[in-house]
Design goal:
alpha+beta, 7-stranded antiparallel β-sheet, 5-stranded antiparallel β-sheet, 5 helices, 46% strand
Length: 264
């Protein structure tokens, strides 16, 4: 499937900002599941300071704004051709060792709720157990926007039984790691069937399975990602794979507007 993606992010401040530093992971890579035919990242109101690949191989840009800037606009756009691989993204590669993805993070620590969920998975081969885990996460955590925020942990989301794709992914990661699987967070885009315009990017999990490599699981939709998905960045949790993050100096209040289109 050939997808055209446009992702616009605009920061507006109610007073001039003395300094702001933004980090963007908004440039996808070609891999087994996707080929990047064209991609651009433009920034207005700030300048690019450095471009590098982070520890997970994500294309990372740091941009800064100073001298009383009140607006920063970022546009990522391009065309990506995707393949149906039944959720299998291939063998482990990169500088980060596989064992690193078995480590807990602050957002994915396994508390009593996570341990109980993991123990309900039962026996079977690795792939069957991970699919059962995906089903349990979807059953136990209802999709509800506004019910959590970026600081909500997997344990908290599971305990309250509500969350969004970020929370579904964190719960899956925490339980999968408790079961002994290396697991990682994936940020990216999803071509929706009912609309081209979206309010946010998407997120899902990948777990490493012997003889297959990394296999993807989207608990929010109850499927392994197909050709409608585009991978942006990976990490151990949301904080390590989030597409946009930053800091600023001063007392100005920030307003964030995001507009995304993913169309065939």
């Amino acid at each position: 499937m050939r997808l055209k993606i446009t992702h616009r992010t605009e920061y507006s401040y109610d007073a001039p900002v003395s300094y702001a530093l933004q980090r963007f992971r908004l440039s996808p890579r070609s891999d087994r599941t996707q080929t990047i035919h064209s991609w651009s990242l433009t920034v207005e109101g700030a300048r690019e300071e450095v471009r590098f690949d982070d520890q997970y191989g994500n294309d990372t840009r740091l941009v800064s704004a100073e001298n009383g800037q009140e607006t920063i606009k970022v546009t990522a756009s391009g065309e990506v051709e995707t393949l149906e691989t039944n959720g299998v993204t291939g063998p482990h590669r990169g500088f980060a060792p596989l064992w690193l993805f078995q480590n807990e993070t602050a957002l994915t620590a396994a508390g009593p709720e996570i341990v109980d969920l993991a123990e309900r998975v039962g026996e079977g081969n690795e792939l069957d157990r991970l699919h059962r885990l995906m089903g349990l996460v979807r059953e136990k955590v209802a999709y509800e926007t506004g019910s959590t925020d970026s600081a909500t942990t997997a344990e908290q989301a599971l305990a309250q039984g509500r969350g969004v794709c970020q929370d579904h992914t964190h719960v899956f990661l925490a339980a999968a790691r408790h079961l002994g699987f290396p697991a990682r967070y994936v940020s990216g885009y999803l071509k929706l069937d009912e609309a081209d315009e979206q309010a946010a990017s998407h997120a899902w999990a990948e777990a490493h399975v012997d003889m297959l490599g990394w296999v993807a699981f989207d608990c929010s939709n109850g499927i392994s990602p197909d050709e409608r998905y585009v991978r942006l960045a990976i990490g151990r949790d949301y904080r390590e794979a989030m597409p946009v993050s930053g800091i600023r100096h001063g007392a100005a209040q920030e307003r964030l507007a995001v507009h995304i289109t993913v169309e065939q």
